[in-house]
């Protein structure tokens, strides 16, 4: 239940500072960075598979694929660890990509998919379905969450296009904050009157990659893949969008179409993520900043880099979540908030004079 | 009555770099002083430091011999006021409500509208020509009227010294002249010391008794416009080639920059 | 100076300028608030005729009516009203500091801090039988401490040569999310009744009000409101911007810190007993501004009155609309608040 309010704050100075300082300046080093990132991601996946309450080893992992016997370890690896790792990677990458898109679209360096009301809408839909339609299995939660996320995002979009001017970054941010708050309150209200529902849904609402079966990932995966490809396809146009509405229009970009596309991609990726793993915050906000530090603001590099870093972050958060209060587990959504907040505060302070 | 306003070994910085270094400056009283210089030369920074808004890295600003940072903000507020760049009034605040605020340093929680307050506020409204606008919200006024309302507020503060940071920058020519004329009158009639930053060299020459040119982390030259404004100075301070002549109406120095443009002879 | 009356008393020891139009509006709204206060006693599981309510209040009613009204309903109405006032005034103060009419106390982490403290309290003081080892009457104190401490933490983190409004809100958002995460975690690790209690508190409800709470809340909030009354001219100056405020001789940072503490205390007082009721701090000052204008002298009392009305009405709806289910007042303040917030956006194209 981590719902983040965002208002129209001119945090541009943060943006400027980060932009000016990019570690890797030429294409060669950026490519190396992407390769290193991929390797790092694979490493994290490996670590996440092997370590946990039941420690296994790389050898055992490989064996579980090639010579599967019904041993506990193999079962854990196949049914628990692998799905979890894959989910964490896909969700982390997707959230990071949506973070990049939202930050560019709303010109707010602290934007995240949450601001379109996606997390809050998903949460509300799930709780609503649970209480009034007695839905209780995870698979159904996934689709309902997706639906809720979509409705919320569409409402935010719809609201921001009503009113006097076009869909401005300001209006999106504020409309999203309002819708998020509304759904969050309604969700809390429903739960306040229904203790049983709270028990069932609490862990889901915190955001977790644990306990999901592979099937859930696989059913949502096509949407994620479409989202990823679409994001890569529009990455060069995003560079133009980043220059501001007026300049972009002057350069011939079809603004309405672009914004709609971004909206759809965000729904697919963030909606899909929340469908699988519940609402997870901070990945979308913080990862783009790191990615930008490494490869700058060219979206053609930024989007893949963010995806890699997002996967890495979520995997690390997940491993940490497993160890911190062993044998119990902290939901990964809580973990990302705890890791993410110090960075968030650091970023906010970096803003300098204003 | 304030007698002196000066800086001693003043060094101002922004991060690691010094904007103003080791400056000794004396501002003439009862005159209009204008600070001019290229973008980023530090004139606004200097003004803000004199206004007690920016703490110096080294050195001090002395008001009647006393370091203004050792005085309380209220004490300084009774002698010196500043109108910052682009001030913003809360939505719906009327002109009268704004100008009333100028009396803050002289008031307390139980004395918020003494007879003296009332008299000074009404006079300020009249002097700036906005008394017929007193019940209108500030954000509904035109640029020139709004600026006059803010000047009325600083007038109500009743200080000997008024500082203004680029008071005319976002105004069209008519309103620029309107404001500068007002300030000129306030200086002539009420003998208030006015120190401001202006961008337009020619308007500066027309209205200022004393010009201070800021460059290279310090003051290049200062003095009466007709004594110091030469094309060499303009070249040095602004890196601009020009021809200096005399304003046909006022006789004050007039700078005409070289460059492109249609030549009609 | 039409509509304005100069008031000078005690041989000029006291003087101020009164806005007559605004004062009339304030009086009207205060009367409405009082009326809502008296008649909300009519609503609940059973509807009691307002005349009977008045009789009880004079001391003349039936024992049964007396029980319901005085023992059950009045305490919660008191808390609803005072919480509403405190939240509204806190919001007004914050909007003055942050200079953004869309700022609200929910934003700077105070409510979330209170939530985390409440859950922490429930977690710490529960034994293995899932019952509280200390009286639940200490719960509000935990909420209060949590809220105030978090308010201070946010301020400290936001301090870098002073606190700018932007930084304050940004840090507030971050800390708020962090607190929410901790709250969630504590709710998950602990027994479910704890989560349920915590959740009710987080949503904002005056359900479990009783007279002992009223005895604490009312004087506390009254004192804070009184302090606020004396501070209004500082607020007016803060709103003009840091440079102008400094030019006028205000110690900008010191004043800001004091105002923040005041606002945090008001929020903390309200939410410790009534839970984290949202949107009141946003809506009430805003509505008040539209009615009486931005001068804090009238804005603060008007916001207070409107805040009280909002929470009392939300509580009435929560008690009656879904009988026998009791929906926390916080849900309705959100249900009204979010659309209002959206409406605000589109009336206000410039920001």
From TrEMBL, chain B:
Biological process, per Gene Ontology: iron ion transport
Cellular location(s): Cell membrane
Molecular-function GO terms, alphabetical: ATP binding; ATP hydrolysis activity
Protein keywords: ATP-binding, Cell membrane, Ion transport, Iron, Iron transport, Membrane, Nucleotide-binding, Transport
Membrane topology annotation: Peripheral membrane protein
Keyword Iron: yes
Top-level lineage group: Bacteria
Broad class of where this protein is predominantly found: membrane
Recorded GO CC terms: plasma membrane
Protein name as catalogued: ABC transporter ATP-binding protein
Species of provenance: Lysinibacillus xylanilyticus
Organism lineage: Bacteria, Bacillati, Bacillota, Bacilli, Bacillales
From TrEMBL, chain C:
Gene Ontology MF annotations: transmembrane transporter activity
A GO CC term attached to the entry: plasma membrane
Coiled coil ranges: none
Keyword Transmembrane helix: yes
Similarity remark: Belongs to the binding-protein-dependent transport system permease family. FecCD subfamily.
Name of the protein this chain belongs to: Iron ABC transporter permease
Membrane topology listed for this record: Multi-pass membrane protein
Subcellular location: Cell membrane
Transmembrane segments: 77-98, 107-126, 138-157, 169-193, 213-231, 257-284, 296-317, 329-346
One of the GO BP terms on file: siderophore-iron import into cell
